[in-house]
């Protein structure tokens, strides 16, 4: 970023982009392009509309919607006006929405549709600061305090005609130290905290990220992560500054289809997508069987050898190059075609990625660059690079970022991307940032001799067995999830003699297995109670245990009939397990596993 504020960055990129395509928006039968000029007109009208509603610089404007064009335009409009965007997950329950809007004292809120409007309207008079509700879709007639996005834009056009140069004047007022956003952490325990970050924080992180991982102008992205999460939001900022093209997925459930349609060159995702893709590929290989299975196993062995050489920085030459080229024609290219066929690389963040999955996809010719960060570090702290990467690590520190490991193993971070404060919570701010400016991340990790960072677990999630052994549950969970028949895993055992687990079944894979073995049931709930399925999974768990130390092994488990989900509160919006919620819900099942002793 050449500019000191995101306001100036957006205005300059609009001017540079002109009639070039900035967004691809899903519509019936395909995607419709939107140019920089068209996006600018919409964002300006939204900004001016908010000014016309009486909002002042620094006022908080919330956005309660899924990932869509209007989310981005509302965000840009707010940034142009010097307002502070407060993202809210559309999956949040009404009481959670009320908490955030009340805590940040939001003056206005954009809502996606009537169900989201109802969450806000249901707060009654408990939001005295809220004066305006803007509906992106649907009819605002008869809805108290509501207007439509189209009506807001009309109001903005009228305000602009009466106040020419209002946005340019506001842009001159906005300073790097001004607040840009308050992002409420989804958190795995307790109420969310509002992370306040400034224009300067994001100006730094956008610049640093694009220095670490270059994005050529015009690169195609598929945007589908929640924009309420800092990773999805940063992706939008990065693609705008790099003047890439963002195509919006129609939804999380359609990502696989949208990949084939959009054919992105770069994609940002959380590990869950890669886990599902990995499981589908392995299941398809098992289903095909015969010669196809033999060829795949040969090809993946060749690909893994080529991957190991590339990881060491060595060229792939001679016989190995020839075999890898043949494997690519016979197998790998067909697999990559399911991802659109043009992907240069993936970026992974938001949760730990299994090393096995990273190496497997790299063997297929799909590179994943895993990174690490927190909302409190404006999303990113470290990332692997195209020219140098190590699977199983989250790369090296970004330019201008310091990382060190405390005596107890906690990762400490310092740099210009560290947040200003937790909104209205000085004690929590002092606890997070020490007197020397180091952010205490709450994560445990190691730095190797080359400066690559490896995350071992969350500090508060470490399991200490009754025998005094410290175990990082996420490492064991990742190994379990790598199995084709296991969808999700939760490992338990703090202060216990050994580890136990809750496991969920991969629906497609277990259904196909049941068909091959003459079992009529296809429903995952019913299959989870079949003794044949329990025996299958027990064998898979025992195989995984053979690669673990005795104290890390899962001795007993329970098969659940359904996956953990956001709707039930067991997962965060980035699909990380809320451990406290899971223990609260399934604690009796877990404790029963120890009663057999």
Sequence-ordered SSE layout with sheet pairings:
Elements: H1 6-17, E1 21-27, E2 30-35, H2 36-52, E3 60-64, H3 69-80, E4 84-88, H4 94-104, E5 108-111, H5 114-121, E6 132-135, E7 146-148, H6 149-162, H7 166-173, E8 179-184, E9 194-198, H8 199-212, E10 220-223, H9 230-241, E11 245-248, H10 255-262, E12 266-269, H11 271-288, H12 290-311, H13 318-337, E13 345-348, H14 355-363, E14 368-372, E15 382-383, E16 396-397, E17 401-405, E18 410-415, E19 421-422, H15 426-432, E20 439-447, E21 453-458, E22 463-464, E23 470-471, H16 473-481, E24 486-492, E25 499-505, H17 507-516, H18 524-527, H19 531-545, E26 554-560, H20 579-594
Parallel strand pairs: 1-11, 3-4, 3-5, 5-6, 6-7, 10-11, 12-13, 13-14, 25-26
Antiparallel strand pairs: 1-2, 8-9, 9-19, 14-15, 15-16, 17-18, 18-20, 20-21, 22-23, 24-25
Helix pairs in contact: 1-2, 2-3, 2-6, 8-9, 12-13, 12-14
Poorly predicted runs of 5 or more residues: none
- Helical stretch count? 20
Number of strands: 26
C-alpha geometry: globular
CATH architecture of the domain at 6-174 and 213-268: 3-Layer(aba) Sandwich
Please state the structural category.
alpha/beta
User: Span from first to last CA?
Assistant: 61 Å
Main beta sheet, described? 5 strands, parallel
Side by side, the strands of the main sheet go 4-3-5-6-7
CATH topology of the domain at 6-174 and 213-268: Rossmann fold
CATH 4th-level superfamily of the domain at 6-174 and 213-268? ANL, N-terminal domain
Q: Name the beta content range.
A: 15-25%
Radius of gyration (CA) equals 25 Å
Level-1 CATH class name of the domain at 6-174 and 213-268: Alpha Beta
Oligomer: single chain
Helix content: 40-55%
Average pLDDT level: 93
């Amino acid at each position: 970023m050449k500019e000191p504020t995101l306001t100036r960055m957006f205005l300059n990129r609009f001017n540079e982009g002109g009639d070039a395509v900035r967004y691809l928006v899903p519509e019936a039968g395909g995607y419709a392009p939107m140019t920089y000029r068209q996006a600018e007109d919409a964002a300006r009208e939204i900004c001016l509309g908010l000014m016309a509603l009486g909002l002042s610089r620094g006022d908080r404007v919330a956005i309660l919607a899924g990932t869509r064009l209007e989310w981005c335009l509302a965000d840009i409009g707010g940034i142009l006006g010097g307002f502070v965007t407060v993202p809210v997950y559309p999956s949040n329950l009404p009481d959670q929405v009320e908490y955030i809007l009340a805590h940040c004292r939001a003056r206005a809120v954009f809502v996606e549709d009537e169900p989201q409007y109802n969450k806000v309207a249901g707060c009654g008079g408990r939001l005295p600061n809220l004066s305006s509700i803007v509906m992106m879709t649907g009819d605002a007639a008869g809805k108290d305090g509501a207007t439509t996005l189209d009506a807001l834009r009309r109001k903005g056009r009228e305000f602009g005609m009466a106040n020419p140069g209002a946005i340019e004047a506001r842009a001159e007022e906005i300073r790097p130290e001004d607040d840009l956003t308050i992002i409420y952490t989804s958190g795995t325990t307790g109420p969310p905290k509002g992370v306040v970050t400034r224009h300067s924080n994001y100006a730094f992180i956008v610049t640093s990220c694009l220095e670490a991982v270059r994005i050529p102008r015009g690169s195609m992205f598929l945007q589908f992560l929640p924009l309420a999460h800092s990773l999805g939001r940063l992706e939008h900022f990065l693609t705008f500054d790099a003047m890439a093209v963002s195509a919006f997925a129609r939804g999380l459930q359609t990502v696989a289809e949208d990949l084939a349609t959009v054919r992105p060159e770069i994609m940002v995702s959380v590990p869950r997508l890669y886990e599902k893709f990995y499981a589908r590929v392995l299941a398809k290989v098992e289903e095909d069987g015969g010669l196809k299975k033999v060829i795949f196993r040969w090809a993946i062995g060749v690909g893994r050898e080529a991957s190991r050489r590339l990881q060491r920085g060595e060229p792939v030459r001679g016989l190995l190059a020839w075999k890898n080229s043949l494997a690519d024609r016979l197998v790998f290219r067909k697999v990559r075609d399911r991802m659109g066929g043009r992907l240069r690389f993936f970026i992974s963040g938001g949760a730990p990625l299994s090393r096995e999955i990273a190496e497997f996809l790299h063997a297929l010719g799909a590179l994943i660059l895993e990174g690490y960060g927190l909302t409190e570090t404006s999303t990113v702290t470290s990332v692997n690079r195209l020219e140098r990467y190590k699977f199983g690590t989250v790369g090296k520190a970004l330019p201008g970022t310091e990382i060190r490991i405390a005596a107890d193993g906690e990762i400490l971070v310092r740099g210009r991307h560290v947040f200003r404060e937790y909104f209205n919570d000085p004690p929590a701010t002092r606890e997070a940032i020490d007197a020397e400016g180091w952010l205490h991340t709450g994560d445990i990790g190691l730095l190797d001799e080359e400066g690559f960072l490896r995350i071992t677990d969350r500090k508060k999630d470490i399991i200490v067995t009754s025998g005094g052994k410290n175990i990082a549950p996420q490492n064991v969970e990742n190994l379990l999830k790598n199995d084709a028949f296991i969808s999700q895993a939760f490992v338990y055992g703090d202060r216990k003699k050994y580890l136990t687990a809750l496991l969920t079944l991969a629906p497609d894979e277990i259904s196909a297995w049941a068909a091959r073995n003459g079992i009529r049931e296809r429903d995952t709930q019913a299959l989870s109670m079949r003794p044949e399925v329990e025996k299958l999974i027990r064998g898979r768990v025992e195989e995984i245990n053979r690669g673990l130390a005795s104290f890390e092994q899962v001795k007993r488990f329970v098969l659940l009939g359904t996956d953990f989900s956001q709707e039930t509160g067991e997962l965060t919006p980035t699909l990380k397990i809320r451990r406290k919620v899971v223990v609260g819900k399934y604690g009796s099942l877990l404790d029963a596993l120890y009663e057999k002793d």
